[in-house]
Amino acid sequence: MVREYPVEIAADGVTAGTALAGVLALPPDPIGVVLFAHGSGSSRHSPRNQAVAAALREAGVATLLLDLLTPAEDALYRNRFDIDVLAARLHAAARWLGTEPLSAPLPLGLFGASTGAAAALRVAADSGSGIAAVVSRGGRPDLAGTALAQVLAPTLLIVGGADTEVLELNRRAFASLQCEKALEVVPGAGHLFEEAGALEQVAEMASDWFVRHCGP
Predict the structure, then answer these.
(1) Sheet harboring 131-137: ordered strands across?
(2) What's the rounded Cα separation, in Å, for the pair 195 and 34?
(3) Could you tell me the pTM of the whole model?
(4) How many domains does the chain have?
């Protein structure tokens, strides 16, 4: 049975009296925990991230889905592409997971979608972050810039075959990664993986990657 805990995480830049809202969900005897970084205009309620998170929990991996921006911040379009802010918020959430008794002993993975993938890779490039693995779904890893070459964690990039522009950006970013890495293309899938069976393939690939790198 999965246990769910609503959480609030303080972070730099968040208005006093408010915090980042999220849900920490733990399956029995988790082997790791994955922190989700949603994409532009999305939130912890993203149905695609929710679906992947459910698959991870079935595989024995805990999840933390978190709003990286407050509602007021998200109302300003430019904030959705501020990778520095998004990465700082992810850092804060990662630190919180490292102090929370339920998650502190667990290896930490990052799952990023769209702009959230760039933020996840920025965090993974920090040698002190201790990230065990990274997965990007339809991400913009290119927005991580020079940090790509500093990423140490095994990184999986998943892109839809019909998402041609993003696929090319991922191929370029893939070449810059110096860590253990893989690029998986879901044939016929678009940016949102709305095609029949596409999101299920993403969830299976992500689960396999995190179990391989977070498990015993």
Answers:
(1) 3-9, 20-26, 61-66, 32-37, 108-113, 131-137, 155-160, 181-186
(2) 25
(3) 0.93
(4) 1
144: domain CATH number is 3.40.50.1820
Domain that holds residue 116: 3-214
Q: pLDDT tens digits, residue range 107-161?
A: 999 999 989 999 999 999 997 778 999 999 999 999 999 999 999 999 999 999 9
Distance CA 83, CA 85 (A): 5
